[in-house]
Amino acid sequence: MGIPVKLEVFEGPLDLLLHLIDKNKVNIYDIPIVLITEQYLEYVKNMQTKDLNIMSEFLVMAATLIKIKSKMLLPKEDKEDEEKEDPRQELVDRLLEYKMYKFISEELKDKQQDAAKVMFKNPSIPDEIRDYKEEINIEELLGDITLSKLHRIFESVIKKQADKIDPIRSKFGQIEKEEINLSDKMSYIEEFAKKNHTFGFRKLLEEQCSKMDLIVTFLGILELMKTGIIQILQENLFEDILITYDANASVS
Amino acid sequence: MEIDKLEAMIEAILFTMGEAVDLNRIALAIGHDEETTKKVIHNMMDHYEEENRGIQIIELEGAFQLCTKTSMYEVLTKIAHIPKKHTLTDVLLETLSIIAYKQPITKIEIEKIRGVKSDHAVNKLIEYNLVCEVGRLDAPGKPIVFGTTEEFLRSFGVQSIEELPVINADKVEDFKLEAEKEVQLQLEI
Amino acid sequence: MEIDKLEAMIEAILFTMGEAVDLNRIALAIGHDEETTKKVIHNMMDHYEEENRGIQIIELEGAFQLCTKTSMYEVLTKIAHIPKKHTLTDVLLETLSIIAYKQPITKIEIEKIRGVKSDHAVNKLIEYNLVCEVGRLDAPGKPIVFGTTEEFLRSFGVQSIEELPVINADKVEDFKLEAEKEVQLQLEI
Question: Comparing C-alpha atoms, which of B5, B29, B7, B21 is closest to residue B59?
Fold first, then answer.
């Protein structure tokens, strides 16, 4: 007790639980839930990770353990029932399944080490037939795939993706609903510059309202400046940026 | 003799192609049905067992490929450049064994067994060409299902996924018992 | 027998190396002098003469190489001309539809929409000449953007991608589409 131990890293809550069961030399079918829960919580408390995703998985298991613990502490109402249902059963099943795959993965590791000892050979098609390139018959490949079928597939993909998006968060999206594309914005600025020749950045922004608009416009200006289509000048800090169109530099 | 000629052809084909060649392609090339072709190849595999042969034919889910025998590894390290294989971490191996045994399987199911998010592991296995998408499940949300590749079979020296060590209910029970015994053994010490 | 083992080693070496290997390198690897090694190889060459072998060892100025027998030429031409079966799997179709409708699109964007690594699918579509690289995105890392090929248009009997069936917004609830656009927006900047 109280001896500082370097915390081992576990892949997940099941991994940690198996370790605790192993360490305490207890029977997996008869997990002393109070002891294991205590040690589990102790470990989670000291966990170094700041990754909320990982942390939350460990916490879910902590909640499960506490639930099992409280169920086991409750007085047994119906003896018949109690015998049939051990609150730990589901956890034991999961642990056993997980343990089994860990066991299998060790077997696979051995298999891989053996299999890695064989060498293969690169294709060596004789010169006479090397030039032959296998033709792909597109018509045969496409079979009965029509445009409308492809279209339906795309729609279902979009639908699936939409389903995945959290509806609350996605509503924020309505604030800026139009799509702003950098290259569109660049052509817009270029047109604007051709017409006005010299103008202030603020004037350019007059018709544009969203923050996204502003950012993309600014990026567009930087890009156009890089290609030499426009030149920009700012006399003093926070003063309006003066944009000048260079007709000579314009690329066709 | 006819059989001899067929064997020669098949040897030449497998040698030239280098990669795994589907049984039906071999059959078409040598002009025999698949059944006969398979018999001839299996017969050849026996010949290759002989001690003076350094190469062997391996079977990968209905395809055949020539490679060296594992016993030749040592001498080959002395002369050939041995390509480095991806070393799989425990996390990847664990995820891979779940996919191998439960395929076709969705990511959610993998995560349920492992108790942790597994996007990274699955993507890595896809990158190493050990796992691939095999389609979508006909269930709400149409989740992607994953399975193992031919490269998986090659890398782990198995002919087909059926050949993986069986873990039917009985075996699982055995394993559970074994685990239990182990636990009790430790307790007694 | 010792000789058998040496033969096996030499076969494995020549198979793995593929190219012509100098006698002295082979001798060094198998741990025998050149004289003995040469004898063993010449002995092997006789075995390879047998009718059931499709490969042979050839000698080239003190070096040795494994290659197919010239009599095998015909069957090799045949196998090379038997096309592999190509099929557009659901995975490929789905990826193709995304590229068709979202082009020009980067691999990252495709993967974001599909939720899984898609290198294999994109590569296959390129191999089938349905998709090609159309340039690079002017964004950090200059990622490659993909689009459909002329072959794609021809196969589907349309003049340009503008002719693809329009996405029916009614089918997907409005705000969900907006949400999807938001993701798009984030991707584009």
Answer: B21
Calculate how close chain C gets to B179, using CA atoms only, in Å.
Answer: 36
**Within this chain, do residues C119 and C184 fall inside the same structural domain, yes or no?**
yes
Residue C76 CB neighbour total at 10 angstroms: 22
pTM of the model: 0.70
Residue B85 lies in a domain: no
> A182-245 — its CATH code?
1.10.10.580
C10 domain residue, yes or no: yes
Residue-wise pLDDT for A13-59, tens only, equals 999 999 999 888 888 888 898 899 999 998 888 877 667 777 888 88
Cβ-nearest to C94 among A137, A157, A176: A157
Cα–Cα distance measured from residue B25 to residue C79, given in angstroms and rounded to the nearest whole number: 7
pLDDT digits (tens, 9 = 90+) for A182-192: 788 888 888 88
User: Which of C138, C164, C181 is the closest to A147 by Cβ?
Assistant: C164
Q: Which residue in B1, B5, B79, B144 has the most chain C C-beta atoms within 10 A of its own C-beta, making it the best mutation to test that interface?
A: B79
Identify whether B173 is part of a domain.
yes
Single out the residue in C76, C103, C122 at which a domain terminates: C76
The complex's ipTM?
Answer: 0.72
Residue numbers in A near B72 (CB within 8 A): 119
Cβ contact B29–C90 (<8 Å)? no
Tell me which residue in B67, B141, B142 faces A120 most closely, judged by beta carbons: B67
DSSP H helix total and E strand total for chain A: 12, 3
